[in-house]
């Protein structure tokens, strides 16, 4: 979709059977909206409603409902999303605001389960998360395509430059030929004048002269025909030799083929087996991710929400059980069996599920590497088979062509012999005219015939040189177009090669800049600085080792006596860790221009941060977001500005 316009009207949010909400309709305003109230008052469920209407799939259907609906209306537009339980899974339908919610899920919907916040809390690798929306494989493919195009352009331009280097020699050759033509033409004119000057007054002498001229004309014609036949013969012999060389090369290439190579069909069977295994792993990984995400969300909500009003209204006397559930901070109500279990047991199980998913991901990567390798091998074998067939077909055609040309060579050799015999006869006739009376005339005719043949050859050579010069000069326009395209390709390559680096640098700079500003505003007592540093590391991808960039999070603290030391994320307080996670999400929000995709940001689960700092955070985030919706406890909301819009009933 196109970039959103700023939200200028009120926003109506309608929820039916989303999270813990039965039915609710709430109006929000542009700017900051604060959802305030006690725990278990469906504030998180309301945020999930907004997420669902915007396009996220990370919203839950009410546990006792088979269908639900989320609706968002503002600036004259309406966006609806339907949730339905089918075969134990929640299926989404409707017309949401976003077609692809990935960026919003990562950097705009900042609930407790948000991956950016969780990555900082757990000390995970941050680079992978900030770069996830970037399709690096597609960038590499574009780079490979452009590099191939640039090589082709370079080759073509190099050939054109080589043509340019021919021009001086061609121009010089043309001048030499024109000089020779001029000299030869002048000599021919002189010889013709000499023939005219011979005194053959008597009729007999005139007849004799015509007879001599006829004999030499026949001889000249015969020699011209012999040259043509000899040229055809030489051309056929060269073609024959070239065909023999090609045949020898193809036969050598054919002999080099190994007949013991594995069958492509057998490789295809193995590839299908691996793909079936990978599809199975994909299903398993997806199911594990769904289970993990569902359990993380339920754990974040402390299991099932308790409906105290129902207990009171029904006169339930088992107050001890209710009190125990409310006070047991380390216990939650299990959403699979309904019993109370320790949070650490559920978190331990979740960690095992995450480890299992990671193992499945690694196995899937290894399978993909094997599939790629076998596919490449299969392609190579198929190309070899195709090439072998092409060679055999070409060899058969060459044999036929050699037989035809051999026959033609024999015919031309016979014609040369016959024409040479004819010339010998004509020369004998011409020699009969050689006597004292006509000797000079005969010599002049011979020289004239030779020069006329030479002039014809010089003119042909000059025409060939001129055609070559015109061909080279005619390519100047093509050269200009090629140079312009090469410059464009080089610019595109530079942009692609540096795009990932630029995004990484911008992400790091954004985090470091905003983290510095936030720390100066929130004034944590002994934190001097928190920043991200980029470094390169070597990792294994399948069977290859490649260089990848990693983000290292650094924390510098100071003691009461002014000494500084570097600390780790594990030693941050819960408040400090939550703030760091929120700033990291904000960096991703700005680097990926999420504000151009969706005009909302949602904040939840800020209880670990004191109310004064929450107020400062909200004010800081407000500068970057069109519509900010924050869920807070009543006591935390009291520190916020009265100018914000407050929602106290959902």
Automatic annotation (TrEMBL):
The keyword Coiled coil applies. Keywords: Coiled coil. The keyword Cell inner membrane does not apply. Transmembrane segments: none annotated. Residues 136-291, 343-513 form a coiled coil. PANTHER family: ABC TRANSPORTER ABCH.3 (PTHR32114:SF2). Belongs to the Sph1/Sph2 family. NCBIfam families: ASRP. This is Archaea-specific SMC-related protein.
